[in-house]
């Protein structure tokens, strides 16, 4: 799509009519970035690109880092969102049964899976991770009762669900389950490989956000090809100038989505664009490498370490923890980790310090008590009669 397409789409919303007033729209680089702050401070009605009667669904970000940002999807957008998954190497068909662990509470990924299933007439089972009615133990039970072919969930949830199954005597790979679809967090190649080894099946990653919608799904080789027909990706430096290919910079997205078009949306993600170089999947479109949110990068003694780099190190360890997180303390990293086996913490400390190139200390902690993984449902129907 050429730049004119994205500009025309954007001008259908009141927000962009006001924002682009007096801007030279013939000069693409003169168009100001749209920021998260813009979307947080605007009226949801003003970012609509169509009449509200043409809207299918409304979504919001979680609001954990500030005021939630709105996101509208028209009925035509819903079809486009489904196609992001359908045209991918996942090869979703009517013979599939999707077990969808993504939350349906205003978040977007669960709906993308549901829309795609409906469009190809695949089966769908909702086991919302935020619902008290479907704790991890029950999800494993449902998997064994229904034999889904695809499991969709967040990467951390995938590790928790795997371990829950192990506690219940589940054998892996699970018969009939052919793929995992993960989204909602950055997943480096080492982390992807680790989860694939746990489950014994391929992992496909969904890239996007509530604001932008679903954008890309990794190919069979784990690459995000920039193949969305209504999305333009730019990578800029901290001054807002375009960088050369194979250079890490700030992600800027333009989307022709009807419900809520976006023009040069600066989403605070760190990305890189690489040439496909004859990727064996056959897609010749450029490849997007996602390094995580800029806010998630840490700096130790002037050395910037991206979340992607941290994951590459953690999931390359000789012993990978069940759960982990990090804390910055006195100019160094404290690696808080939970192992379910005996480990040599000094060896892990030395290994991780070498991989990250900075001093790391180890703190062992029960981040998630293992016994809670197999708890029974905490929610049921209201009872009118006591016995």
Helices and strands in order, then pairings?
Elements: H1 3-10, H2 14-19, H3 36-41, E1 55-60, E2 70-74, H4 75-86, E3 97-100, H5 109-120, E4 123-126, H6 136-146, E5 150-153, H7 155-167, E6 179-183, H8 189-199, E7 203-209, E8 213-217, E9 224-225, E10 231-236, E11 249-255, E12 262-274, E13 287-293, E14 298-300, E15 303-305, H9 307-314, E16 323-329, E17 332-338, H10 345-356, E18 360-364
Parallel strand pairs: 3-4, 3-5, 5-6, 6-7, 17-18
Antiparallel strand pairs: 1-2, 7-8, 9-13, 10-11, 11-12, 12-13, 14-15, 16-17
Describe the protein in words.
This protein has 387 residues and is an alpha/beta fold. Helix content is 26%, strand content 26%. It has ten helices and 18 strands. The protein has helices at 3-10, 14-19, 36-41, 75-86, 109-120, 136-146, 155-167, 189-199, 307-314, 345-356, and strands at 55-60, 70-74, 97-100, 123-126, 150-153, 179-183, 203-209, 213-217, 224-225, 231-236, 249-255, 262-274, 287-293, 298-300, 303-305, 323-329, 332-338, 360-364. Strands 4-3-5-6-7-8 form a six-stranded mixed β-sheet, sandwiched between helices. A hairpin with a 2-residue loop joins β16 (323-329) and β17 (332-338). α4 crosses α5 (109-120). It is globular and about 65 Å long. The chain starts with a helix and ends in a 23-residue tail after the last strand.
């Amino acid at each position: 799509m050429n730049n004119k397409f994205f500009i025309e789409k954007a001008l259908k919303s009141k927000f962009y009519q006001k924002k682009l007033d007096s801007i030279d729209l013939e000069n693409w680089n003169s168009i100001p970035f749209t920021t998260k702050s813009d979307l947080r401070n605007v009226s949801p009605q003003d970012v609509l690109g169509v009449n509200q009667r043409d809207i299918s669904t409304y979504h919001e970000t979680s609001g954990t880092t500030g005021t939630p940002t709105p996101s509208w999807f028209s009925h035509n957008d819903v079809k486009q969102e489904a196609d992001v998954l359908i045209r991918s190497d996942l090869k979703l068909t009517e013979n599939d049964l999707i077990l969808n662990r993504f939350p349906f509470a205003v978040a977007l990924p669960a709906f993308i899976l549901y829309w795609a299933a409906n469009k190809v007439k695949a089966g769908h089972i909702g086991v919302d991770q935020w619902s008290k009615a479907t704790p991890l133990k029950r999800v494993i039970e449902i998997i064994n009762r229904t034999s889904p072919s695809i499991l969709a969930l967040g990467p951390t949830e995938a590790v928790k669900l795997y371990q829950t199954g192990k506690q219940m005597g589940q054998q892996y790979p699970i018969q009939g389950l052919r793929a995992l679809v993960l989204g909602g967090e950055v997943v480096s190649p080492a982390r992807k490989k680790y989860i694939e080894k746990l489950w014994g099946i391929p992992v496909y990653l969904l890239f996007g956000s509530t604001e932008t919608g679903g954008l890309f799904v990794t190919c069979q080789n784990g690459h995000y090809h920039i193949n969305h027909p209504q999305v333009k990706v730019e990578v800029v430096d901290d001054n807002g100038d375009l960088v050369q290919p194979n250079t890490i910079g700030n992600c800027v997205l333009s989307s022709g989505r009807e419900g809520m078009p976006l023009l040069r949306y600066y989403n605070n993600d760190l990305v890189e664009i690489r040439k496909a170089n004859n990727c064996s999947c056959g897609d010749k479109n450029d490849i997007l490498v996602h390094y995580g949110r800029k806010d998630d990068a840490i700096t130790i003694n002037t050395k910037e370490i991206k979340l992607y780099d941290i994951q590459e190190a953690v999931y390359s360890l000789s012993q990978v923890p069940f759960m982990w997180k990090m804390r910055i303390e006195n100019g160094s990293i404290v690696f808080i980790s939970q192992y379910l086996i005996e480990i040599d913490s000094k060896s892990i400390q030395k290994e991780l310090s070498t991989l990250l190139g900075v001093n790391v200390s180890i703190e062992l902690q029960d981040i998630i008590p293992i016994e809670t993984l197999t708890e029974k449902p905490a929610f049921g129907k209201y009872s009118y009669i006591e016995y």
